Amino acid sequence: MVQEDLDPEELARRVALSVAADSDEVGALVGRTLIGDGVWDYRFASAIKGYEGWQWSVTLYRDEDADTWTVDESSLVPTDAALQPPAWVPWKDRLLPSDLSVTDAMGTDPDDPRLTGGYKPVQAKPQNSEVQQTPGDNEEGQKALTSAETDGSDQQTDGAVFRLVDRSGDEKDVHEQEADDQVSFGAQTSSDDLDEAVDRFALTRRHLMTPEARSATAKRWYEGQHGPKSLSTRTAKGKVCETCGFMIPLAGDLGTMFGVCANRWSPDDGRVVSLDHGCGEHSEIEPQEESHLWVQSQPAYDDLHIDVVRQKPREERPEVELMEQMQSEDGSED
Asked: Where is the composition biased (Polar residues) (predicted)?
């Protein structure tokens, strides 16, 4: 729509009134802003019930050569004081573990921040032999490997070098991974100690949990229903899982706080529990002694009172009445 001789403010108001359902819904002019290249944004206060804090926005274009105004668009726009719905949250971020059934599977994202690459054993040449370049090895890793083989230090691993494997499939030398993943073996670590650690903690898995993920897991477990703040712990009378014979310890840093309950009579059987958790089925609790006294139970019914229940009237059936009358006359029934 092009207007030549009309005031731009009046033009913008007419446009807003044509869009509004009622003339009272368009308030006073709030302001106008030059967007650029002759485009102006006119704002009017909104008087629509439920849209407090919103404004009518009418965009006009000024053609200086033709001395005309053109209407571009009009809409309702919110301000900082407007009442708006909460920000949209993706469905995956709204889900809770309790929302999933046993047949649902979420899967693991390739860039899940809870995981880091595991360790992959790579066979190396014996000491004092020439090191050959292998696909996927970088120069820094080869330099570190060559240095470990030729200087006779305690960093040798008897022909085996463990390398960190990231999610992309690339390999990094074990000496490089300290700065990236904060997991390292000391310089004095022997081959037997290294093999024992790798075997004990299953470090050759493709992915391992990061320290941050383990810390978040410990916090979630400790504050859950199998931690020290549960109702069963308060009724356990000081008998905690740490001293229970049915508690199976965990390996690694989580073992300093948690174990697995193996008492079949415990409600926590097969679950990870904190060491200061309790359930009342501690191995040191003796069973209750059986009483030989007769315990009088409450009567199952009250025979001191009679409840009069009105009987439902019998259905009138002439043939039944006739048979009863004949039997009464014969004296077969009283």
From this structure: 125-136, 144-158, 325-334
